[in-house]
Amino acid sequence: HHTPSHASGGAMWQGGAGGGYGQQQQQWAAPGQQQWAAPPPAAQVDPLASFYQERVPAPAGQAFMMGGVGGSSSSSFGGGGMMRPPLGGGGCAGACQGGLPNGLTVSGCDHATIGVIVRGEFSLQGTNHLKPVYKKGLQVDGLDVMLYFWDERDGANFCGWWFGPKVGGDQVWAYHPDKTCPHPPMTGWKMLYNGPIDQTLLVTPQWVGGAGCGMPLSMPPLAPAPVGPAPAGLTSFGPCAGNMQQRTQQLLEQKRLGELQKQAQLLHSKKDMEQRRVEEQKKQTATLAIRRVIQKARGATAETLTAIQSELAVTKAVHLENCGTQKAAILQECDKAIMQAQIQIQAFAAQKKAMVDKSEKMKAELEDRKRQMEENKKKIAENKVKLEEDMQRQKEDAIRKRSEDVKKAREAAMKKIEDDKRSKVEAEERKIKEHQTVVAVRKVLQKVRMARPEQFDEAKQELDAVLQLELDHCGSQKEVIQQEVAKLMEQAQFRIDKINEQRARQQEKRDIVMKLCSELEVLVGDAESAVVKLKESAAFFEDTAELSVTDVEEISQVIQEGVVESSIRLQACTNYIAEHGKDMKDPMPLSNNEPQEITVRMNALRKRIRDTEQASTATFQMAQDAKEKAMRHAWANNKLQEMKGLFTKYASSIEDTLTRSEITKYALGEFKFTVPEPVLDTIFRNIVPEGGNGVKLQDFTLLKAAIGVAREKVRDARKAEDREKAKVVFGAKIDETKASLAAASKVASKMDRQIQRLVGKVKTTPVPQMLKLADHTDGLVALATTAVAAASALVKVVQEALTPDMRIDFAKDTAQFATAEKALQIRVETAANLSGRFRDSAAQKQASEIERFRGAVLKIISYNQRTQSLNADQLFDKLDADGDGAISSDDFVKFVESAEKKLDDEQEEAEDVAGAKEDDLAEARKKGSIAEEEAEDDEDEAEIAAVAGAVAGAEEEDAAGLGDEYSAKRLAGLFSHLAEGQLKIPKDDFMRVIRTYYKCVKETVITDGMSIKESKPVRRLEVNEVLEIVEGPIKDDVFNVMRVQGRMVKDGLEGWISIAGNRGTVFLQRGGNLYKVVKETTLNHTLALEPGATTKTLPVGEVLEMHEIPRLDAVSGFTRMKAKVKSEGSVGWVTTMENPKNMFVQLL
Fold it and tell me: What does the pLDDT look like over 205-218, one tens digit per residue?
């Protein structure tokens, strides 16, 4: 954007649009003369440009060029000169014009929905991720329309420019992947996130006041170029001082005019933007109205097309002129929609005609088939008639023959039936006669069988008579009847003898029971006599007029003695029945008609006992009531006598009257109360009759009440005074409690601030520093606990000292104390909980670090064992440098420090297969181990953040305090962890430490050799089956897989298994020595379950590390495993399985 100079001597150039000044300036110079470049308008002057304009001449043969702000500029100079580099760097594909645009205009966009949303005017709102954010002037359906940039913090795929309702929101309308442009790109926008690029969407940047008026993005240093000598009369910095002052005045005037021009431009720009916003809103409303009808036209039918065309014509007539630049596109959409609707209607008509033709053709074919079916049906009917006639003839012949045969058979059968019937009648008659005879005999036999001793002889005579008459008519039953008679007579005689014996025994029992009843009847009579005496004693209370209190007491004592006596005698009856009641029953009757004499007698005795007990109770209650009545009467008499005595004691001057002085003596002597004169005046005015000398006896009670009232008034005044004094003392306690609560709150605030410092420290802080932070926090929690306890004690003292009189005045304070105390206690409890969880997180983190370090060291030991071809025993001997049969800490540290720590490629590959791929193929385990710990850390941090506020920096500590990764200090610490509290590690424990387990994650084959090609299958390895590694991993070069030799925990079988296939399928992964308790079980010290042995209960969820493989306990029949409890380090035997359906632990 430069205009070339036509002068022969030289020219001065100033950057145009894109250079930052918004216009071009030219100056012509004659040969041999110097000319100065005129400054741009004041509103667009760059301070550095003004400096150079004033001080740098443009001699003949030289040129001067001033670069723009935000753009780039270049030119050729004929001689020497000075160039100011551009400010802000290059543009964005020719679109960046000297700084950030103040606004944007979005136009185009073919998308029917998104176009309406994004089209319009946008203004600069701020920045996001170091780039500008623009906002549309009008909302769409209540939503803002934002245009912003998002960097790569969520991934490279989400980096770029976005249209959406809010910055960083989930909903987006358009996306541009450009990452370098300082403001939104003009073209190349995708609809939605992964939609096609809309070539019509255009984002046009706008600068208020013209192009290039935005602020520069950067300000590079000046780049001087060689220049010629200054002309005469000029210094190296500019013209003379006079010209300098005049030039300064001109610049100030220009600057003032420029400011006014800039303000006018801004005002005009705002008016233009408001006008464009209104026009854009009209355009959007018109566009939406027309497109709604277009949408209806797309789904029009032949019947509705004409109406929709009319509606579209009316809508276009109303709104088309307001569509602005979208007018042509809207017309095209209208024509396209009508054309599509007509094409759809024509296609539907053609389809309908084709369906009608097809229907007619199918109808004709159906008629042909129907005619053929009628002909076939007619032929079938004729054949059927002929066949039926033949069958009818055959059927009639068969029926005729069968009828003749049936008739002959019926005649023969009838004759046989008559003969059988006659024989049967004769037999039935004989049978009936025999049955009647047998029944008659057996009826008499039954009478003999049931006869009692006094009836037996008569029944026997009747039986002999019946036998003599009917026995010969019994026919075939004669011998049976004779046998029954003989047997029955023997049984009847035996029965009669037994009944006689029972009657004798029952009579003996009845005599004994009757004796017991007689004894009980005597006891009942004694009880009744005692109740009669009690009633006689209670009769003394019938006349209570002359009874004194002493008399009443004496009568009551007599009645009480009578009640005790009657109770004793009734209890004797009850005890007698309890002791002998089971024997006082009627013997079992031999017949239903025998009388129940004893039962009737016992019921009568029980009734007498109940009546006696009720009479005793009623008499005692009546006596009590009478006693109370008599006592009240006697007490009233005594009180009356006492009152008379008291009255007589003080009424000495005038008989039966108390004078003023005597009343005063009475009150002072009896109540220690001096009656005031006003009270005496009131007494005489209200109690003493007019003209009377004093209070009479009948008014003595009123006098006593009046004195009592006066005394209570004095007491109330004294209490009020005491209450005011107590309020002052209690107020001091209130102030002391407030101060104590304030001090406790101050300590708690310090504790809360410390809790805030724990936020975010779980993952980033080293374990030693975490433990120091936890100790410091626990100290603050302890201080807060002490302060809160002291405040709570004062609150309790205040609450206990709060009397009902003070409750009104201090109820609000005490309620606030209770609320503040509870809040402080909650804060302390929450802080203690969070501090404890922070300490637990430190312990978990420390354990996790130890486990990772343990794995790394064991890999080194395994690598050196394999490279040096050592078996387990040789490896132990190598570590046991002093040969004492156990590995010491020094032995362990020296071996690891001197061991080769670089793993070979095969080892790394095996670890990748069994470890890294484990995260992809064993998601459940990942979630159940390390991810669980991290989730708990996140949960701790979230919970701390909910209580605390902002994060404050904790005291820095050297995180590398452990020194080198494999330093002697770290190795010694690991040895202590492996030794589990012992000074040395025995050989058996060392073998367990270096033992490696794998578990099957996908069913595979166990072979008898390392080479798959040359070995044979032994059996299949099932999922979740565990094996102990004996050798490997070793690479099978033929199939390019890693293989290990293992011993199966299930059955002890040894064989070779592939860790993974050559296509990436994983068969084995590290693990198999960790188990989780799924059903509550116990832990003890021996394999056998001994009765009474000390056991420890393991709850569900506890994690166990296997020390010895599960084995069967022959005594209990349970499967048991030696294991270590991961949470606390206890080692013992645990029951893993009772039977395959009752599992206590499960493999992780």
Answer: 987 544 443 333 33
Region of 349 on the Ramachandran plot (φ > 0 left; ψ -120 to 50 alpha; else beta):
alpha
CB 881 within 8 A of CB 894: yes
Question: What are the φ/ψ torsions at residue 860 (nearest 5 degrees)?
Answer: -65, -45
The span from the CA of 746 to the CA of 202, in Å, is 62
Distance of alpha carbon 145 from alpha carbon 132, whole angstroms: 14
List residues bridging with 133 in a β-sheet.
126
Query: ∠ at Cα 239 (235, 241), nearest 5°?
Result: 100
Axis crossing angle, helix 305-319 with helix 241-298, rounded to the nearest 10:
160
C-alpha–C-alpha distance, residues 912 and 667, integer Å? 108
Distance in angstroms (rounded) separating the CA atoms of residues 1020 and 1017: 8
pLDDT of residue 96: 44
pTM of the entire predicted model: 0.35
How many Å apart are CA 102 and CA 762, to the nearest integer? Answer: 46
Counting every residue written for the chain, the total comes to 1148
pLDDT at 542: 66
Q: Name every residue whose Cβ is closer than 8 Å to that of residue 185 and which is 6 or more positions away in sequence.
A: 92, 93, 95, 161, 176, 178, 203
Helix ranges restricted to H, 451-477: 456-470
Q: Tell which phi-psi region holds residue 1062, choosing left (phi > 0), alpha (psi between -120 and 50) or beta.
A: alpha
Exposure class string for 863-872: b at 16+ Cβ within 10 A, else e: bbbbeeeeee
Token digits for 917? Answer: 């791929």
> In the structure encoding, which two tokens stand for residue 168, read together?
């960083």
Q: Report d(CA 730, CA 798) in Å as an integer.
A: 8
How far apart are alpha carbons 814 and 738 in whole angstroms?
Answer: 10
Question: For residues 100 and 88, what is the distance between their CA atoms, to the nearest angstrom?
Answer: 10
Q: Residue 756's Cα: distance from chain center in Å?
A: 26
pLDDT recorded at residue 204:
92
Low-confidence ranges of the chain (pLDDT < 70): 1-99, 208-244, 541-549, 586-595, 653-655, 805-808, 902-965, 1091-1094
Q: Helical H runs in 299-326?
A: 305-319
Asked if 1001 and 1069 count as a contact pair (C-beta separation under 8 A), the reply is yes
Euclidean distance between CA atoms 344 and 349, whole angstroms: 9
Contact (CB, 8 A) for 767 and 849: yes
DSSP conformation class of 965: T
Q: For the purposes of burial, counting CB atoms within 10 Å of the CB of 1047, is it exposed (0-12), middle (13-18) or buried (19 or more)?
A: middle
What's the pLDDT tens digit per position in 155-188? 888 899 999 999 988 889 999 999 888 889 999 9
pLDDT at residue 128, rounded to an integer: 93
Cα within 13 Å of Cα(959), Cβ side? 8
Contact 1118, 1129 (CB under 8 A): no
CA atoms within 13 A on the CB side of 178: 18
Return the residue matching tokens 């004797």: 572
Quote the CA–CA distance of 1062 and 1015 in Å, as a whole number: 18
Per-residue b or e along 276-299, where b marks 16 or more CB atoms closer than 10 Å to that residue's CB: bbeebeebbebbebbbebbebbee
Tokens standing for residue 1042: 């890693």
Would you state the pLDDT for residue 132? Answer: 94
Q: Which residue has the tokens 């003379």?
A: 240
